[in-house]
Design a protein that fits this description.
alpha+beta, four-stranded mixed sheet, four-stranded antiparallel sheet, about 30% helix
Length: about 200
Amino acid sequence: MPNSYTSGAAGLANPQFPDKYYDDPTGIDRYVVQEKVLFAWQGPSKIDKKKKRQEIAQIILLAIILILILSLLQEYLLTVVLAMFTVLYLMFETSPPLLLQYQITTIGLKIEDKYYYWPQLSQFWFEDRQETRILMVRNLFPRVQVMKLIIRAEDEDEIKTSLGKYLLYKKPTQTSLEKFLHRASAYLPLDLDPF
């Protein structure tokens, strides 16, 4: 009866490893990594903000005015795109948030089943948005983006300690575009950062 693991040189050629391999972002699986969860929490996927009927009416009125102007200019493709964008925005704003599982592990940040490995992350910081504490993590791969994760205020110290072992704790300076969008959102009925 053949044994899957035998001693000696013949056994080294075909050993069975019960440990789980993880996908190395560089594409080279050189070793088995024992994943250990440092901290885990559950949080909503977005801030659950209830828009007032007046704000929704303002968004719809603004969209109708822009659609009429584009129709008079015979820009039908832009009219359709704007109408679709308005419907999608309203659906996003009125849909309830999902409850997600977040984990800080020894190989990276895990959101549900998706990994963000430490080499592709650079820094983290915390912000307050509408009385909600948010963990901001800068992701560098495949493009620079900021992940926004909702946390409980009492978990902030534990998250800072766990992430601080791997990432820089520093808020980056705002770009000119970010400053402009922040100022413009104060004058518009729609939120330019819909998180």
